[in-house]
Specification:
Elements (H helix, E strand, L loop, with lengths): L1 H4 L9 H39 L10 E5 L11 H17 L4 E3 L2 H4 L9 H8 L3 E3 L2
Parallel strand pairs: 1-2, 1-3
Length: 134
């Protein structure tokens, strides 16, 4: 039968040599793993040092700006202008309470009360993102 021709392979390495060989191989493997871990830690630490040691400029937060243009008096009586200016002042006061909003002062926009400039031209002159107009 087939079993007659089959022979178990004989070990040519003694048990003591085999144990020594296994120990050396695992020692090499362990040292390679330790060396790899050490190199990874050194690379991460170097990258973190380079990243955090630089003085990056602070990120500027975009501040939204608005100007409230003077309201026109369409009434027949000049006393209405006082009431209209009061409404404008109240709007400016309430907008000024928003911390992330830059509100152009009333004195800066007063020059545009009787102007013929377009809203985009006024916005460029005042350097604002938004205009509130009557």
């Amino acid at each position: 039968t087939d079993n007659e021709f089959y022979q178990e392979p004989q070990e040519t390495v003694s048990t003591q040599d085999k144990a020594t060989w296994k120990y050396k191989w695992t020692w090499k493997k362990k040292s390679a793993i330790y060396l790899s871990i050490f190199l990874i830690i050194v690379i991460i630490a170097s990258g973190a040092y380079l990243l955090f040691s630089k003085n990056f400029p602070p990120v500027k937060k975009k501040v939204i700006s608005i100007a409230v243009l003077p309201f026109k008096n369409f009434g027949n009586t000049p006393e209405d202008q006082y009431f209209i200016d009061g409404i404008m002042e109240e709007i400016l006061t309430n907008l000024g309470r928003i911390s992330d909003l830059r509100v152009v002062s009333r004195t800066s926009v007063e020059q545009f009360r009787e102007t013929i400039l377009s809203a985009s031209e006024i916005g460029k002159k005042l350097d604002v993102d938004y205009l509130m107009k009557q």
